[in-house]
Design a protein that fits this description.
Radius of gyration of chain B: 30 Å
Structural class of chain B: alpha+beta
Shape of chain A: globular
Strand content of chain A: 5-15%
Radius of gyration of chain A: 23 Å
Structural class of chain A: alpha/beta
Shape of chain B: globular
Helix content of chain B: 40-55%
Largest sheet of chain A: 5 strands, parallel
Distance between the termini of chain A: 21 Å
Oligomer: heterodimer
Number of helices of chain A: 12
Strand content of chain B: 5-15%
Strand order of the largest sheet of chain B: 2-10-9-6
Number of helices of chain B: 29
Largest sheet of chain B: 4 strands, mixed
């Protein structure tokens, strides 16, 4: 870990000085700091499909001509030298916890290809709205983690909710693609903000007690033993192992708790905002808290369209139109402010 | 005569031969390194050294010549990078005292001469052995590679050739020595300059006690499969039981399991030849057409967005009708590739409605009907095959003269550029030929691996295409179609993947591949005839349980491959078991999953998917976007198990009015109920242990017979016997 006296920003400055012959590495070695790469234990990836632009959040360009600059003013934040939008005062207090990357860019002109680029990290074969979700395209980040460093604690490695990102066609790179379906996310489309939110897949139907489920499983095992297919077919054996996992997830307290939003105090739920986005973020946090003690990696991707009720269509206005900015003022930015860590 | 020694040295360090082979051997021009489309670290070489002139320019002339230093060769960037003396992203590729280093050093010292037109060219490559069986305890196979040049000389290039194996059954050294990692087969691809050769190698465990079990040969399929097994000292599994066979034949041929009555009638039939009779019987059933129409609908992209629901329905009906009518497969394909007109009235025209530009039409036609993957050759010469970029665009040009008369598009989703609702007319129209982007020139149409389209046939080129493509002389057509059918019955293509026929990916049993193809042509491209031949073979009827000698075999068909059944088959089997239909969006209740013509009749925006649609998606029904069998997944996932353990299947078990409820209210004894459920679900009776356990279950529920029946049905529908084909 980096020495606290060497702040991130000063590091970046020094990093820049590498051009003049002093590399950051040499400097760190000189300062006797061990440069350990940081390793994430869990990742919450909020994909802001249709979210506010950089112009309305972290890069207001106040000195640009009025046709270009944001209608909002920048305010200073807790991170020296970083200004944020005036509509994000809470964010401003916490900016010293954040890393703001200003250099990320691409040249895509279409949602499907740009979305794929961002979701996979791979340049699409063509910049075309007709880019279709197919097995020759690259997988989602979470599927890569599931392939290379799967969770071993009974929790799913990769959970995705509550939308499938699409603009007309489904945007590629939201599943395992050529890595194979077993690395697909555990995807659900139920709205965490729905008062009756529950995951039918992760909860036992009311008519099915744990006891009864176990009885069924025993009977299934007895029948399976008669033909011994599990002994010689890795495929059949693998499928059987999923039963073990599924049943332990269905009957395990930690998994059920992790997905049980209703256990959160009302005040916490309110503070996250009673929106699909807000409750999705809370659910992601909850999963992390309720993961078993030695939990390794867990990747969540709540795919959130900010103006949820209207879907992506309500974002059709040109970004500079006043209607759009009003919508941000009353809707998107408060949501963003509420849930940015 | 004085010039002679110099001439020898010139050959020794010729750019096109020596330098190029060293660049390949060291991996410099691999796809992940400088052979990448954009090069690496500022240096771009042609992929796997397919263009010596380009590489010479990159190495010597570009970057203002900084890569080569003729005055002090050892300081050349090329050498200090390659030996890792200075930082090199690819690390150290060879040492200073290596042969590779010596070759490059000598070439630079000699003035870094360009490839010379007068220098000898590679004319042939020869490997010794051409194929091999390596019996334990021997575990190594050294390969010798000899190159012949245009000046008549030959040279041992074992050290210079590149070696790649098709799988991890063995490893290979840079000197061409293949070492066994485990018993089984592998293919070594030997590459030297622009030529490559495959060597099939089998590593077998010799057992001095091995006795060939001499199983009965039913037809030529067995002759070829058993000949290979005997060669490899592998005994095939025993013949499967009647209970296994009846289930296998039903699911493979008509895509559903037998009812209890059907299974019992077959198993208790004492007459001779009942298996062959069952196959004949299944081939004439209407479900046969349903099931095989689904397979072709997958790869022909019968999908609602591009064809629209009406188009999908008509296209699917046309495909199914072809199967009902026993339309020969060559005629079926001819009609597809000449399919013009209204996509509603002439359903075959949907082939081109789905494949909308010349390149896609060329790629799809090559993949489906010639078993050839061409996409690589779109951007560069194919790295594992002999197709060039020129071949690719000349083949595309065959498909260049098509256009669409498009009416009003009543898209349901204005943003979806793939969606088209309404009829379209596919028509021939005068268009420029396809341009090869590498040369910028329009190219003349030429059939893939076949003749140039004669000038007088340019006008009706699709008819010319059809007669060339589906002619009995076109080996690749017959083989790829026979392999497709073999794959669907046996679970693995003789050429695997089924759309990847090439010299460097040979059939696992080339004699059988040829024989199947010849049989298929002689039968008049008859689907049923080929299915009958395969199903009646002993090979098809082997058990799935391996024996000691064949447990490691995965490519020689010594035992049957266990695989999860397709999504549609499992869902229909559930419906049959419960005697309750599944629901699909846009269809009246009662349609079976294998009968659904497309992917999803209404877009999700109009109507949420029904439970049946969701089940099919979870279990890997393809979206039909790719024109590739590979799009269908028979992988197993955690989510599938959730659908079977949790609410999904449980909701269906609780539905009223089906078989389970009827049984519970019937006067049948409990053991009769158990017997019925077993036969219905898995085509066999319960054994004593199973019957005991089931009766115990009934007792534990007391009067609640229904609950016991639900639990037993759940257990049966979740056994691997139900979900897998064995």
């Amino acid at each position: 870990m980096l020495n606290s006296t060497l702040g991130r920003r000063s590091m970046l400055k020094i990093g820049g000085a590498g051009l003049m012959g002093v590399t950051l590495q040499k400097l760190l070695r000189g300062a006797d700091i061990v440069n350990k790469p940081a390793r994430a234990k869990s990742v919450i990836f909020l994909f802001q499909w249709g979210g506010p632009s950089q112009l309305d959040t972290f890069d207001m360009k106040p000195n640009a001509p009025s046709s270009v600059r944001s209608p909002y003013r920048p305010i200073s934040s807790s991170a020296p030298g970083i200004e944020v939008c005036e509509l994000l005062p809470e964010m401003a207090k916490r900016m010293h916890h954040c890393t703001l990357v200003r250099t990320l860019t691409h040249t895509m002109k279409n949602h499907a290809s740009a979305g794929y680029y961002a979701l996979s990290g791979h340049q699409p074969p063509s910049d075309d709205q007709r880019l279709r979700d197919s097995l020759d395209l690259y997988p989602a980040y979470g599927s890569v983690v599931d392939k290379l460093a799967p969770n071993k604690n009974g929790m799913p490695t990769f959970v995705a909710y509550p939308h499938v990102i699409r603009d007309g066609s489904i945007v590629p790179a939201q599943h395992a693609s050529f890595l194979g379906k077993k690395h697909d996310p555990l995807l659900f489309l139920e709205d965490p903000n729905d008062p009756n939110f529950s995951l039918p897949e992760l909860s036992l139907p009311a008519s099915l007690s744990i006891d009864r489920l176990q009885r069924r499983r025993e009977l299934q095992r007895l029948i399976d033993q008669q033909v011994n297919m599990l002994d010689y077919s890795a495929e059949a054996r693998g499928f059987d192992e999923y039963y073990q996992r599924a049943i332990s997830m269905l009957t395990s307290d930690s998994v059920r708790k992790a997905f049980d939003l209703s256990a959160e105090p009302e005040s916490i739920r309110d503070s996250y905002g009673r929106t699909t986005y807000g409750q999705s973020c809370l659910l992601a946090r909850r999963q992390k808290l309720f993961a078993p003690a030695n939990s390794s990696r867990t990747v969540f991707i709540p795919n959130c369209l900010l103006p949820l009720k209207g879907g992506p269509h309500s974002l059709r206005q040109p970004p500079s139109s006043s209607a759009n900015h009003d919508r941000f003022r009353v809707f998107s930015l408060p949501i963003a402010m509420q849930h940015t860590p | 005569m004085l010039a002679f020694p110099t001439a020898v040295r010139a050959v020794d360090s010729d750019f096109a031969i020596d330098v190029m082979s060293v660049l390949s051997k060291a991996g410099c021009n691999a796809g992940a390194c400088h052979g990448n489309l954009n090069g690496k670290g500022g240096l771009k070489l042609s992929l796997r050294g397919q263009d010596a002139i380009f590489d010479y320019q990159s190495l010597v002339l570009s970057a203002r010549g900084r890569r080569i230093n003729c005055a002090a060769p050892e300081l050349s960037l090329l050498l200090v990078k390659a030996t890792g003396t200075v930082t090199h992203g690819g690390g150290s590729r060879f040492a200073v005292d290596s042969d590779e280093y010596r070759v490059l050093h000598q070439w630079i010292k000699g003035g870094a001469m360009p490839p010379s037109a007068a220098a000898p060219r590679l004319t042939a490559l020869h490997c010794e052995p051409e194929q091999a069986i390596v019996n334990a305890p021997e575990n190594r196979l050294p390969v010798r590679v000899t190159a012949t040049f245009s000046n008549g000389t030959t040279r041992d290039v074992t050290d210079r050739a590149c070696y790649e194996l098709s799988n991890l059954n063995a490893s290979v050294s840079s000197q061409g020595v293949v070492t066994r990692e485990k018993f089984g087969e592998t293919t070594l691809v030997v590459r030297y300059l622009e030529k490559q050769l495959p060597i099939s190698i089998a590593f077998t465990a010799t057992d001095s006690n091995f006795v060939w079990c001499a199983p009965r040969e039913s037809n030529f399929v067995d002759t070829h499969v058993f000949a290979k097994l005997k060669r490899l000292s592998i005994n095939p599994a025993e013949i499967c039981s009647d209970n296994e066979f009846v289930r296998r034949a039903y699911v493979d041929i008509i895509g559903r399991s037998p009812t209890a009555e059907e299974a019992q009638a077959f198993v208790f039939d004492q007459r001779h030849g009942k298996r062959a009779r069952l196959v004949d019987d299944l081939l004439s059933r209407p479900e046969f057409a349903d099931y095989w129409a689904m397979k072709w609908s997958d790869i022909l992209r019968a999908e609602e967005k591009v064809l629209d629901p009406t188009g999908v329905e008509r296209f699917h009906a046309w495909i199914r009708d072809g199967i009902v009518q026993s339309r020969p497969l060559n005629q079926f394909v001819s009609e597809l590739v000449t399919g013009l007109g209204s996509t509603y009235e002439k359903p075959a025209a949907n082939y081109y409605r789905a494949n909308r530009d010349a390149e896609t039409r060329g790629e799809t036609t090559a993949r489906l009907f010639l078993g050839t993957r061409l996409q690589c050759a779109k951007c560069h010469n194919h790295p594992f095959d002999h197709w060039t970029q020129d071949d690719y665009y000349r083949w595309s040009s065959v498909f260049s003269q098509l256009d669409y008369e498009v009416g009003e598009n009543n898209r349901t989703d204005k943003l979806d550029k793939n969606e088209f609702v309404g009829d379209q007319i596919v028509l021939v129209s005068k268009q420029p030929e396809v341009k090869n982007p590498a040369t910028g020139e329009y190219v003349e149409p030429k059939f893939l691996g076949g003749p140039v389209l004669p000038a007088e046939r340019r006008e009706d080129r699709l008819a010319a295409l059809a007669s060339w493509l589906t002619s009995p002389e076109n080996e690749l057509f017959a083989k790829s179609q026979a392999n497709f059918i073999w794959y669907h019955l046996m679970g693995q293509g003789l050429v695997d993947p089924i759309d990847d026929f090439r010299l460097t990916n040979p059939a696992s049993n080339p004699e059988l591949m040829n024989a199947l193809s010849v049989h298929f042509v002689e039968s008049g491209f008859d689907l049923r005839s080929l299915i009958r031949t395969i199903s009646n073979s002993t090979t098809y009827q082997l058990a799935s349980r391996p024996n000691e000698s064949n447990v490691d075999d995965v490519t020689s068909y010594s035992h049957v491959i266990v695989r999860r059944l397709p999504a549609e088959v499992i869902l229909d089997m559930q419906s049959d078991m419960l005697d309750l239909p599944a629901s699909f969006v846009g269809f009246p209740s009662g349609i079976r999953a294998v009968q659904v013509p497309g992917v999803q009749r209404k877009p999700p925006r109009q109507a949420p998917a029904e439970s049946g649609d969701r089940f099919l998606k979870t279990f890997g029904k393809p979206e039909r976007i790719m024109a590739c069998e590979c799009e269908r997944s028979n992988e197993t996932t955690l989510k599938q198990v959730f659908a079977l353990v949790g609410a999904g299947l449980n909701d269906r078990l609780m539905e009223k009015g089906g078989l389970l409820q009827r049984l519970s209210h019937s006067s049948l004894s409990e053991s009769a109920i158990v017997d019925n459920l077993y036969w219905t679900a898995i085509s066999r009776p319960p054994n004593d242990a199973e019957l005991d356990a089931a009766l115990k279950l009934f007792r534990s529920y007391g009067d609640d017979r229904e609950a016991a029946i639900e639990d037993l049905a759940w257990a049966l529908m979740n056994t691997k016997e139900f979900l897998f084909r064995k």
